Amino acid sequence: MTVITRGRPRGFDVDIALDRAIDVFWREGYDGASIAELTAAMSITATSLYAAFGSKRELFERAFTRYLTIDMAYAVRALEQDRLSDVFRDYLFDAVEAMTREGRPYGCMSVQIGGSKTGLSPAGNEIREFVSRARDTGYKRLTTRIEQGRDDEGFDLAGMTPAGIAEYLVSISNGIAVRAADGAERDELRGVVEIALRALITR
């Protein structure tokens, strides 16, 4: 538990505050999330917010980093699987579980924030680029893991490139995020994964 204390006011739990900020940013976007809405959700004053996090942008970056660590942990775990076929399965099936998780908005925060390119303020555009860079890092790690599976296991890529397969998996995952946010049922999304995996795992 991390507690911030500034001057004479009482402290607050930073992790809980960040989790509440995640929900606001996720639902409203960066530009749409007002300081008043953030402080109300986080149960702190604006003074405490600025004292603890410096600015709205710094708060977002802290919140998004926590989101990657907690909510996107499934992607890191998938890459640690020994067999490439299990990497594919876990990456997509666990995405479904994470994107339909109780207590969070359905879908994916990075898709929600990083997908819009119109109607954003200059700060909002900078945040979109920040999120897009994080997504690109994940794509490159996935590509590297597929290259490793090809070389170490002799996994048959059936003429596809590691980068192409990574793009395919990311695109399916992003589609799952959009459909989850639209209200698609978890079982329906699992069915999508089953279909998607047939293109990659034939044995």
UniProtKB/TrEMBL annotation:
InterPro entries according to UniProt: DNA-bd_HTH_TetR-type_CS, Homeodomain-like_sf, HTH_TetR, Tet_transcr_reg_TetR-rel_C_sf
Presence of the UniProt keyword NADP in the record: no
Alphabetized Gene3D superfamilies for the sequence: Homeodomain-like (1.10.10.60), Tetracycline Repressor, domain 2 (1.10.357.10)
Every HTH tetR-type domain range: 18-62
Tagged with keyword Protein transport: no
Keywords in alphabetical order: DNA-binding, Transcription, Transcription regulation
PANTHER family: HTH-TYPE TRANSCRIPTIONAL REGULATOR YJDC, TRANSCRIPTIONAL REGULATORY PROTEIN
Record's protein name: TetR family transcriptional regulator
